[in-house]
Every structure is written in C-alpha cells, then in structure tokens.
Amino acid sequence: MKVILRKNFDQLGKVGDTISVKDGYARNFLIPRQIAYQATKGNIIALEEEKKQIQKKDAKELDAAQTLAVNIEKVSVTIPVTVGEEDKIFGTVTTQMIADSLKEKGFDIDKRKIEITEPIKSLGIYSVTVKIHPSVTATVKTWVVRD
After folding, report:
1. What are phi and psi for residue 56, nearest 5 degrees?
2. Structural domains in the chain?
3. Which of 37, 60, 63, 139 has its CA at a distance of 20 to 30 angstroms from the CA of residue 88?
C-alpha cells in the first residue's frame, strides 16, 4: 500500500514522502496513529496545504525563539550559594537553580533546555547555554556568589 507520511518517522522518512509499506502495517499502525495516510489524489492536495501550515507555524516559532534569545542574552543571573573552605561550594549549581533565577527575571525556561558544560563547583562567572529552539541557542552570564 502506498502511504504519505504526515510526520517525520525515523524508520520510514520525512513529512510528505510517499512510501510503499505492507497493508497491515499501514492499516494497523501508521494510519491509526496519524503518522501517515493513504496516497490518494485528495490526500496529496491536503498534504500540500498541511505543509504550508507547518511552515508558517515553524517560521513563527523561530521568530519568537530568536527574539527570546536576544532578550535572554541581555540578562545576567546571580546564584547565591553556601561555601566552605577555599570558596568551594557545598554541592553544585544545577540547571534548576538557573531556571528559577531566570523565572524571577521573567523568562519561563524549562530546566532541561539549560546546558551546563562542566559542573559549577566554585564561585565565579560562568557562561551557560540555553537551547530555546533546535536552531537557536542563547548564552546566559551566570554569577555564582557567596550567600
């Protein structure tokens, strides 16, 4: 059976690809999960419209992500921590701490989108990467100071 993919599917292809699969696989797995639909003339026309909608949505998300990245880069975050001898931190600065500090500044960023390249275990100034969109990242200056 020939089907058209509605979503990117690692094993089969990308959105809009027309592929041949076994009838049972298409009827029992791909079509019920709305990963694909049968390749008919009407569905091909519908796919073109769907592609246009997806492109518009992606463009809006990219613009919003770029604007957010510019605004985040202007902000610096201060993390107060408890320290011991030789200015060593008890524990480490986590992505949750940085996310909470960003939330106080008005940016609602998920902690899973914050990337710390090496553990922050001492006082100082660090650059932390925030992955806002698959193609947009921002760098936040993080100040780790004594509590």
Report:
1. -65, -45
2. 2-64 (3.40.5.10), 69-146 (3.10.430.100)
3. 139
Mean pLDDT of the chain: 91
H or E element in which residue 64 lies: helix 41-73
Contact 114, 130 (CB under 8 A): yes
> How deeply is 137 buried, as exposed, middle or buried, from its count of CB atoms within 10 A (0-12, 13-18, 19+)?
middle
CA distance 36 to 55: 18
Q: Amino acid identity of 141?
A: K
pLDDT in tens, 18-68: 899 999 999 999 999 999 989 999 988 888 888 888 889 989 999 999 999
**Comparing C-alpha atoms, which of 69, 75, 78 is closest to residue 125?**
78
The whole-angstrom distance between residue 6's C-alpha and the CA centroid of its chain comes to 21
